[in-house]
Amino acid sequence: MKRNIVFIDKEKCNGCGSCIPNCAEGAIKIIDGKAKLIDDRFCDGLGACLGHCPQDAITIIERNAPEFNEEAVKKHLSSEVRKSAPPRMPRGCPGSMAMDFRKEVSTTGGTSPRQRSELRQWPIQLTLVSPEASYFKDAELLVAADCVPFAYPNFHSDFLAGKSLVIGCPKLDDVDFYTDKLTEFLKKNNIKGITLVNMEVPCCFGLQRIVEDAIRRSGKVLPIKQTVITIRGEKQ
């Protein structure tokens, strides 16, 4: 039958992954560095993903395609949930859309370098970030515990400048999921090195084990520069 369905222009697509969290049916995946409609049956043709592609690579066209199959979508989403088990923000949340700030000049926070935001991308939480995002390719990666930026006042200038960031809490979040996700990051991107910043409390060193396990599983050899922050906000 002929119906409306998503079309992704491979020439325009840069694989940033911004479209993925905006497809409630999970019909789009990054494959070989490009967004792809993985099954016509998963696309309802309503275009919720439209407008979320910074390259304008996604449009709605009319062509012959199988009918949208809600039962197939449910089975697909159930399978995806089992693969990525931890609680996450609902699919389609605009707050999880990948954004690249590297070409922007920050003017926030006044003129002092210590007041300027050094954040290069969004999102930053390890559960939400996409391993396919362009800002992780050939990057220096900063892995930080959730509490560090609150405890250490010069986090942006001393640690974040020039790096792509992921954050997490090894006590409250799913350690196995984090290890798998970080392993995927390392396999898919030419990460140059890892800066690890965690708090001095014992549970926070779980982040060190996550990073070390992910490097080992990825089969790569990467330098780790670790800094421990005290609960009084000082470098240990």
TrEMBL record:
Top-level lineage group: Archaea
Cite the InterPro entries for this sequence: 4Fe4S_Fe-S-bd, Corrinoid_activation_enz
Location of the 4Fe-4S ferredoxin-type domain:
4-33, 34-63
Q: Which protein, by its recorded name, is this?
A: 4Fe-4S ferredoxin iron-sulfur binding domain protein
Segments spanning the bilayer are none
Q: Name one Pfam family in it.
A: Fer4_10
